[in-house]
Amino acid sequence: MPDGGGAQFVRLAGLKRYFDVSAPWLVRKIEGRPRQIVQAVDGIDIEIAKGETFSLVGESGCGKSTVARLVVGLYPPTAGTIEFDGNDMAGRRSRSDMAALRRRMQMIFQDPYASLNPRWRVFDIIAEPIRAFGLSTDKADLQKRVEDLLRQVKLTPADGRKYPHEFSGGQRQRVSIARALASQPEFLVCDEPTSALDVSVQAQILNLMVDLQRRFGLTYLFISHNLAVVYHISTRVGVMYLGRLVEVAPTETLFTRPKHPYTRMLLDTIPDLDMTGRQRSPVAGEVPSPLNPPSGCTFHPRCPFANDRCKIERPKALSIEGGTVACHAIAEGRLAVEERSYAANS
Amino acid sequence: MATESNNPPLLDVRNLRVEFPTRRGTLVAVDDVSFDIAPGEVLGVVGESGAGKSLTGNAIIGLLEPPGRIAGGEIHLEGRRIDNLPYEEMRKIRGARIGAIFQDPLTSLNPLYSVGRQLVETIRTHLPLSAGEARTRALDLLKEVGIPGAESRLDHYPHQFSGGMRQRVVIALALCAGPRLIVADEPTTALDVSIQAQIIALLKRLCREHGTAVMLVTHDMGVIAETADRVAVMYAGRIAEIGPVRDVVKHARHPYTKGLMGSIPNLGVRTERLTQIDGAMPRLTEIPAGCAFNPRCAERGSRCLVERPDLMPAGADKAACWLHDRGGVGRPLAKETIDA
User: Fold this and answer.
1) Counting C-beta atoms within 10 Å of the first and last residue's C-beta, which end of chain A has fewer, N or C?
2) How far is the C-alpha of A334 from the C-alpha of A259, rounded, in Å?
């Protein structure tokens, strides 16, 4: 992880979030069942610099969406700290201070069907953050701001009078983006913003996000399971597995010199559009239940390089080639880093 | 694998048309779709939501949901016409000659029956086997689709399986009676990437070993590129382009296919912006005259607005685009400016 000192814009340190999924108390007592805790996020450290796009990838259940929700404050963390532009988000402060910080970060959700109020007109949906943060008191000014936002996301001001159901999935996601931009944030958390969309629409939304980032100097935390999308949009990438960060690296390094065995496995699963005839080795096994994660390195049951140490001791993050990796095999030099190449598609 | 051989095709779809009568008039969801599948061949059908790819699959297995209906065309399986069969006749073919795999493995299994019971039921419906023999076959199938500890898993219920394992059970169910054709509708879409790769590898292996043909319906071009021999690209209810997968992926002939390929983020080349096709696929109520793609097409001409192109030879494949006709597209026109 680059050591920027205080220069980092968003800093997560030792972040943990556990969920209690136990049966009700009485059922537990009668049936003698223990408490059950899901360690959705189990101690991760991330630093995001201003203006970059940091992506989190992983399979379902690895905790990436929980991280997104922790960062914007939809969940309180079980342990660890979240610093935003030097301010500790957990620190006690007044409501207005909190609102001022909240204004500067917004979220875009995965499902554009569920994240817009079906009974509100698009104008009101987009105007809501402006009203809530008291950014505009004047009606004409509000009107102008919303129209500008609609144009920014390539919709027309006339669309403001419509209801969400009158739009396609891609257009709804544009409305979500306009709403997120309404409070003039500096930091956007995007939780799988394109995975509910068709590829051609996905391309439109990704292009729009890149344009907006350049225009407003936005910082993105981008959550996705789609490695090709992550490759396209990110500055740096973090790979999560069972609530832990197994590898963080600059995008190009991660894709050409992946280190952690799990990262290599994920890269192997990308379908080969070039049809080079490369035989993919499908990985055996599945993600274990986060209710009962394996000991030591949680990846060891699926890892071809695991030894006894991996079963007992949790690997620490090791700085290497501008990133970090948590793997004993890499740390001990048992596993060499190999170069991967991708043929360019004409 | 065989593409266009002299052997009669296993499945032959001619001028298929699927309609939905509504209060505001009839919607044509699949319009004049023709293709065939050779024995043992994997045909990918790709397109965006609403392109009519799933409806085409459902029409073939005879599971169109009313009020949707086949309004024209013919479907032949092994030389026999199957689109006009009575319901009971079709039931015998479905499962026995055509297997089906759907997107969501949880909803395609009955949660109240153990997977063994579901397999045995399906096997005994189609094959003259005793209960014991059917159970042995069920066990073999579970082993074949790679379920660890198949003996004990036979009596488990669907909720006790993970998503990937459930999809394996669904594949086993589809294979029960040794069908000649499997219609797989988005079989990997609901699965994680690592599981996706496993399921694709499994499907490929099974088809090779059993000589089963597959119609693979998906929106994921990557899955098609890995699995299919030929691919049909659908747009607004019609086939825009059909041909060997390598030609379509590498040398797309239809402007829509070109745009679609460009909009997929590509590993190896980092571009600032992805190629994007502006606008969205038209709703079924608003399909433009002429070529349905014309409002979004950068290469359109005056002819595209009035005359609808049929599939015509274009390079190694066939494309429904006037660019490949001797007459051309006519007077060049600019793309419509679309705000959405």
Assistant:
1) C
2) 12
CA distance B77 to chain A (A): 30
Chain A residues inside the 8 Å CB shell of B267 = 227-228, 231, 255, 270, 342
pTM of the predicted model, to two decimals?
Answer: 0.84
- The conformation of residue B332, written as its DSSP 8-state character, comes to B
Kindly give the confidence (pLDDT) of every residue in chain B, 340 residues in length, as a single tens digit, with 9 standing for 90 and above. 444 445 678 999 999 999 999 888 888 999 999 999 999 899 999 988 888 999 999 999 988 888 889 999 999 999 899 988 898 899 888 888 999 998 887 788 999 999 999 999 999 999 999 999 999 999 999 998 888 888 889 999 998 888 888 999 999 999 988 899 999 998 888 788 778 888 888 888 888 888 899 999 998 888 888 889 999 999 999 999 999 998 898 889 999 999 988 888 877 777 778 888 888 888 888 888 889 999 888 888 888 999 899 999 988 889 999 998 888 888 777 766 544 3
CB neighbours of residue B268 within 10 Å: 15
Q: What is the DSSP string of B260-325?
A: HHHTS--SS---SS-----S-PPPGGGPPSSSTTGGG-TT-BHHHHH-PPPPEEETTEEE--GGGS
Distance from CA of A170 to the nearest CA of B (A): 8
- In chain A, whose CA is at the least distance from the CA of B280? A201
Smallest Cβ–Cβ distance between B266 and the set A155, A225, A273 belongs to: A273
ipTM of the shown complex: 0.79
Strand partners, A241: A244
Residue identified by tokens 């963080």 is A248
Q: Take residue B114 and report the two structure tokens written for it.
A: 């153990």
CB distance A273–B275 less than 8 Å?
no
Can you name the residues that pair with A248 across neighbouring β-strands? A238, A324
Residue in chain A closest to B190 (alpha carbons) equals A60
Q: Is A341 on the interface with B (CB under 8 A)?
A: yes
Distances (CA, A) of B300 to B128, B287, B331: 58, 16, 9
In angstroms, the CA B168 to CA B195 distance is 10
Query: If residue A224 lies in a helix (H) or strand (E), which one and from where to where?
Result: strand A219-224
Parallel, antiparallel or unpaired: strands A187-191 and A105-108: parallel
Is B270's Cβ below 8 Å from some Cβ in A? Answer: yes
A201:B268 CB<8 A: no
